[in-house]
Amino acid sequence: MSQEHIDQAIEREYAAGFISAIESDTLPPGLDEDVIRFISGKKNEPQWLLEWRLEAYRGWQEMVEPTWAHVHYPKIDLDEISYFSSPKSMKDGPKSLDEVDPDLLATYEKLGIPLHEQEMLAGVAVDAVFDSVSVATTFRSKLAESGVIFCPISEAVHSHPELVRKYLGTVVPRKDNYYAALNSAVFSDGSFVYIPKGVRCPMELSTYFRINEAKTGQFERTLIIADEGSHVSYLEGCTAPMRDENQLHAAVVELVALDGAQIKYSTVQNWYPGDAEGRGGIYNFVTKRGVAHRDAKISWTQVETGSAVTWKYPSCILRGDNSVGEFYSVALTNNFQQADTGTKMIHLGKNTRSTIISKGISAGRSSNAYRGLVRMSPKANGARNYTQCDSLLIGDRCAAHTFPYIESRNPSAVIEHEATTSKVSDDQLYLCRQRGLDAEKAVSMIVNGFCKEVFKELPMEFAVEAGKLLEVSLEGSVG
Amino acid sequence: MLQIENLHASVDGTDILKGLNLTVQAGEVHAIMGPNGSGKSTLGHVLAGRPGYNVTAGTATFLGQDLFELETEERARLGLFLAFQYPVEIPGVSNMEFLKAAVDAQREQRGEKPIDAVSFMKTARETCKIVDLDPTFLKRGVNEGFSGGEKKRNELLQMLLLQPTLGILDETDSGLDIDALQVVARGVNSMRSPDRSFVMVTHYQRLLEFIEPDFVHVLAGGRIVRSGDKELALELEARGYAWLEEEVA
Questions:
Q1: H-run or E-run covering B175
Q2: Contacts of B142 (CB under 8 A, 6+ apart)
Q3: Using the 8-state DSSP alphabet, how is residue B176 labeled?
Q4: Can you count the helices (H) and strands (E) in chain B?
């Protein structure tokens, strides 16, 4: 079916309800198959992708929202959400920084965010062309020289359909879970990365370079393929708190590390967590997973400080022999934030190895849960896992929980699990204050020390920012 | 420099200090001795502002300021330093980072810019030599896995770097062998100056052989019951505390 046909079909079917919507480039709230056809049509997608989305949607309709996570929030009315809005909705945003919440601006100041980036993050409609646009262009040409593809996935669907079609949904199947299925049906945009055989990506790839491009929306979809023997380091997110009018974010990230390839995926997530009373804030329900083939390595590093509710388990399927999976995580919750996060290490191949280092910090009245699964399959001879799971409590009204699941069906597999829970002690604070540090500086220093093992896995400049971010996020947690 | 008048303080509802008077002039070294449970350590913590140590009556003036009006960190920035009897560990925070933050907090108080990392590193390494600590201790977590003696020397290292106006040493000598004791004494003696004072809480006369005090006080039952010079310490060494407590009672 040609695009023209699709357009006609859509217009016919939506004749009554959607004319004005098309003009404004935003669909009214609600989800059905026609909405998916509309989204796909708007993006000029090939027929196979439309079918793929529809299949996901049909699967999703049979599914129910999961309730096992240790988080509580009012039910999300998915019929209230508009599943397509064009990037032009920026014009509804604040006209200048004068209209932006002063608290948010104060935070930007503390993080040392340059003014033009502040405008971008706060969603101010800006006409000026940022330096980073040209920076991004420069980077792209450099990447192209080595054959690396780094572009929005909506673009890759057209420019590299064979790759997208081959790998999309192979790591996170469409019906993997409720939110992954929803994402598969309505995903907006996200990153696509392909590193050719044997290529070491010449720079760290960052979503930051793409920040001036169209907003990726609430149903982000990312696909990274590292071909045999290649290396890539990918950075996602930004330390500055991001405002978004969409309360629900349900992203899917798929990583494919072919034989001997290495993927390092680092995230700093700082979505708006709601105010100090727990009002507002983003719900972040993410599915992230990678498949490591023979001798391949996948490493997840995350620093999670944002969102009102987080539900996220970056996982590794260690399919090939000798493959390696790593998960380094810092999750900080303050005020009324809730996080249920961790990882899954699925050992399928022989001599597969995985390491899990999780640091959970709870302050205020927040709740922070680690949930991790280590599974040794019958064929995973000689597989090893080491898990270290530490929780730090600040104050006496917060909570930390640990839910480790271990399934071993191979007698030669070795699994180690260590867990600690500690408090920032009054004596530690007293020592710091007696040396002239104020209480907040002292707490942030102690927390940074607690997170050191994870921070050292972050790319250098990210690590510095992450430290500052914790400091800002912990403000008001002692007093 | 420091005037304490009629100080009463309690911890967990128990009265520990009961009308303590003490005046320390600039340049003086005072030793505070006394039996267990007499309130020696409490005095140090009350002056430093440890949470949970409540002043119920009396005053303390430090450099002309009402000490009890100030937060713990404000007292520290004013130049009041307490060398802890039992220093706590702060895992993952490197000694170097901690020391620099402490020094910078004081500099900020004086309106100075943070010290540059390279020259501070140099100073810190040199100071390590004075207290006989290997410079690798600068990279380790604060007191993390340090032995008792290393922790005490680390306290001294902090004091040498912070150059306080008033140093309070809370049983810094306890648990130290004779070599380590001499290291501590050397450090303190090197800092003695006409505008710096020390208050040393100790059980033993031994420390006073190496750091000669201007005054020796005996603290018993929450009050200073006898003051004298170093001869008093020798007398205590010979006779114990019981006779004093009886005299007071």
A1: none
A2: A431, B89, B90, B93, B94, B95, B98, B154
A3: -
A4: 9, 12
Judged by CB atoms closer than 8 Å, whether chains meet at B98 and A450 is answered as no
Q: Which residues pair with A192 in a beta bridge?
A: A151, A223
| Closest by Cα among B234, B240, B183, B228 to B206 | B234
Which of B71, B72, B85, B103 best tests the A interface by mutation, with the highest count of A CBs <10 A?
Answer: B72
A155-169, A465-479, B185-199 — which is least confidently predicted?
Answer: A465-479
How many whole angstroms separate alpha carbon A80 and alpha carbon A100?
25
Q: Which regions of chain B are under pLDDT 50?
A: none
Sign of CA dihedral A297, A302, A307, A312: positive
**Interface probe, candidates B41, B82, B90, B170, chain A, greatest A C-beta count within 10 A:** B90
CA B167-B55-A393 angle, to 5 degrees, is: 80
Q: Which two tokens stand for residue A318?
A: 């260690």
Residue A136: band (very low, low, confident or very high) from pLDDT cuts 50, 70, 90? low
Residues of B in contact with A451 (CB under 8 A): 92
Query: ipTM of this predicted complex?
Result: 0.94
Question: Would you put residue A151 in left (φ > 0), alpha (ψ -120 to 50) or beta?
Answer: beta
Nearest to B165 by CA among B39, B85, B69, B67: B67
Q: Measured between CA atoms, how close is A426 to chain B, in angstroms?
A: 8
Our measurement of the distance from residue A435's CA atom to the centroid of its chain's CA atoms, rounded to an integer in Å, reads 39
Average pLDDT of A355-383? 94
Q: Do B76 and A452 touch (CB under 8 A)?
A: no
* Closest-CA residue to A205 (of A266, A129, A122): A266
Q: Taking residues A360-371, what's their average pLDDT? A: 90
In terms of CA atoms, which chain B residue is nearest residue A426?
B51
Q: Return contacts of A206-209, CB within 8 angstroms, 24+ apart.
A: A206/A234, A206/A235, A206/A236, A207/A235, A207/A236, A207/A237, A207/A238, A208/A132, A208/A235, A208/A238, A209/A132, A209/A135, A209/A136, A209/A139
| Longest pairwise C-alpha distance within chain A | 75
* Interchain contact, A449 vs B52, CB within 8 Å: no
Give CA–CA dist B159/B130, Å, rounded. 12
Residue A207 has pLDDT above 80, yes or no: no
Q: Using CA atoms, how far apart are residues A239 and A470, in angstroms rounded to an integer?
A: 10
In a mutational test of the B interface, the residue from A432, A448, A452, A455 whose CB has the highest number of chain B CBs within 10 Å is: A432
**Radius of gyration in angstroms for the set of CA atoms belonging to chain A, rounded to a whole number:** 22
The amino acid at A171:
V
Nearest-angstrom CA–CA distance, A22 and A38:
10
Q: Do A427 and B88 touch (CB under 8 A)?
A: yes
B146: CB partners within 8 A, 6+ apart: B89, B137, B140, B154
Task: Give dist(CA B4, CA A476) in Å, integer.
Answer: 34
pLDDT bin (cut points 50, 70, 90) of residue A376 is: very high
